[in-house]
Every structure is written in structure tokens, then in C-alpha cells.
Amino acid sequence: MMTCDTITRQRLAAAALASVATIALTVASAVPATAQPRAVSATQPPVDDGLPMPGFDVEPGRTALVITDPQNDFLSPDGVTWGVVGESITANRTVENIENLFLAADRHGMPIFISPHYYFEHDHRWQFEGTLETLMHGIGMFDRPHALTLEGFAGSGADWLERYKPIIENGRTVVTSPHKVYGPDSNDLVLQLRKAGISKVILGGMSSNLCTESHMRALIEAGFEVMVVTDATAGAITEHYDGYAASLVNFRMIASKVDNTASTLRAIAAAYE
Questions:
Q1: DSSP, residue by residue, 5-37
Q2: Signal sequence span per UniProt (predicted)?
């Protein structure tokens, strides 16, 4: 024989199930009938992939463009890493997309920050290294004699890609001190952003699962809101590993938003209208 308490619990359970069903129908009706679930890719944002969509609004005065390692050793066919990153860069049109972000940000007065990667002669005396630190030091990646000279810098692997120089060297773009491994923990990027009143970051650059992802993680831990532009970065692809594919998963699971360059350019333009 059912008691009043039992009947009450059953009614509450039925009401809860009805509420869940109503929410599910509401969500389903908000998604276009033609939309198919889709994971994030280089050129497409995710659709109904089972994860939350926090979103990211471009706010003039609070939002900056941050680009990691826009340097020859990554982005030029003559760079020392082109053999492993060239496929991903070419497929994503990374070089062109970074340039378009630079141009849009500069045109609208959005602050631009560059977090470069340099190795000086004393860095080659480190007593231990991680896997790709060993590789980078071995191939002379981003090498410069020391911090107090630009001797041999122009046109070197550590130099900016030539097409980016008009923006990077315009006197307005902030070039931080170099990061030494992958993230901004060893440079002054966070300080420069804070001093400029920035709390939101649009992030791109190289290399996706290394410096770009490490910057995303560190900036989020430091309290910044971050979106990643998925085709304004690229990663190393080897016989056994796909660094770019690995980064897409983490971009999606950690950043507030992931989207392509075209959508990001539209968002920037709309914010400054």
C-alpha cells in the first residue's frame, strides 16, 4: 500500500522528468533542422558536439590580439621546421589568416601583442631539456647571439615573416620579451596585457599544440578570457603524431570559444562599428 510520502515522491519525479523533456525540446527546437553535430575543425566551429558553448564577445578597450611566434623558422618554407609544419600551415592557410587578423586589428585600433621565441647562446648551456626543446636547440631554431644585439637577426629564422613586418614594427604593436619553452610564464606578456587594461584575448600563432596551446592555458589560469582562431595556427605532423589534431581537442575543451578567421574578422568589425 502506497503512503502519502511515496505518492509525493512519485509526483515530484514525474514533474522532474517532464521538466527535463521540456528543456530538451526547447534546446532541440533552437537548433536548425539542417544542423548536424560537428566537432571543431581548422575551418569550422563546432556544432551541437555535446560540450557547452560559453562564447566570446569582442569588447573594444578590453580585447587584444595575441600572436605567438610569427617567425621565419615556423612560417617560412625556408624555416628549419617547415618539413613538419608546412603541411598543416598550407592546409589551414595559417600565414594568410594571421596576416588578415593583424590587418583587421590594426585597422580598428585593437591592441596587438607578439610573444616571440628566441634562444640565446647561454640557453644552449641548459643542463636538461624536454623532447622538443632538445630538437629546437639541435636545429638552431630561433637562435640569436644574445639579448643585447640584433646582429644577424634580419632575415634569420628568428626574424618576423617579412609580410608581417609593417604591422609588428609599426610602433604600436607590443613585442614582449621572449618566452623560452612554450608558455608566457617566462616572459612579460601577462604584465603587458594587464598594464594595457586587457582582460580578453583572441589567440593565434605557432605552434598549435606547443606555444599556442601553452599560452592559452597560462592566460586562462591568469584570469583572462580566451578564444582561439583555429585556422590562424598550425602544428607539426610526423609519421606517428599529429600535433595540430591534438591541439584542436584541447582548444575546444578549454577556451571560451574556438572559431575560424573569417568569423573572427566579422566579429571584430561588428564590435568596432
A1: HHHHHHHHHHHHHHHHHHHHHHHHHHS-TT---
A2: 1-35
